[in-house]
């Protein structure tokens, strides 16, 4: 499905990002996997290598312009271009009311969840091949503002807009941009957001990759500016 494609995945050390790296590798893609530390991303790269595909691990804080540019430069230097960009990296931040939200935490969450995808997209676009696909990870709280979701919700609202703007700007260049809401999954972030919830009631990230595979593949050529709910797509 993804033979001869190069995919760059941010936030790939755990959870959904790691699941996507392994799913893409199994379908034949070459991978650039990213997280903030070499220690966290190296084991994922080794697991991908074990599947018989090429992989390059890059430690970078994508909320910083120099790191985002370096990430893309390394991807292009290794593989010559990028076919698929998955903007997945993100943090939850505190679950408190706006009046109690610390300013430094607000800036940290917005930078990680929204500025990072902007910086990586900006750096990657000149190197994306025709037929390329940008996949932006959004959330149920990116279309429905809820109490005590603070900067996380606001950043994901921004990701919805960024995804649509990219779709409009890149359509004539044959590059598509879509948003995916993964829904609740059995991840560390979900456990932090809902500590009272039984994790076993949620699907694993590994069970939630179908729409991401579709959007990375040529099957979705011409599909852009859309918003997908991953778990509904699984059922369809």
Automatic annotation (TrEMBL):
GO molecular function, one term: oxidoreductase activity, acting on the CH-OH group of donors, NAD or NADP as acceptor
Keyword entries, A-Z: Oxidoreductase
Record-linked PROSITE patterns: ADH_SHORT
Pfam family, one: adh_short
Keyword Oxidoreductase: yes
Domain of life: Bacteria
Family of the protein in this entry: Belongs to the short-chain dehydrogenases/reductases (SDR) family.
Protein name: SDR family NAD(P)-dependent oxidoreductase
């Amino acid at each position: 499905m993804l033979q001869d494609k190069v995919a760059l995945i941010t936030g790939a050390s755990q959870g959904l990002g790691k699941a996507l790296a392994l799913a893409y590798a199994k379908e034949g893609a070459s991978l650039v996997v990213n997280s903030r530390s070499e220690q966290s991303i190296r084991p994922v790269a080794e697991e991908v290598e074990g599947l018989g595909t090429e992989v390059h691990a890059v430690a970078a804080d994508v909320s910083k312009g120099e790191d985002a540019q370096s990430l893309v430069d390394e991807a292009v230097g290794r593989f010559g271009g990028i076919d698929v960009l998955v903007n997945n990296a993100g943090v939850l931040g505190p679950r408190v009311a706006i009046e109690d939200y610390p300013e430094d935490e607000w800036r940290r969450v917005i930078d990680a969840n929204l500025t990072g995808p902007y910086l990586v997209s900006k750096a990657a676009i000149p190197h994306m091949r025709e037929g390329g696909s940008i996949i932006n990870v959004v959330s149920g709280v990116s279309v429905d503002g809820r109490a005590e979701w603070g900067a996380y919700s606001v950043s994901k609202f921004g990701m919805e807009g960024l995804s649509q703007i990219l779709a409009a700007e890149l359509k004539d260049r044959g590059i598509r941009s879509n948003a995916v809401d993964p829904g609740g999954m059995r991840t560390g972030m979900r456990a932090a957001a809902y500590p009272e919830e039984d994790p076993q009631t949620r699907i694993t990230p590994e069970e939630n990759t179908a729409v991401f595979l579709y959007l990375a593949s040529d099957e979705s050529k011409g599909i852009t500016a859309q918003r997908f709910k991953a778990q509904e797509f699984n059922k369809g």
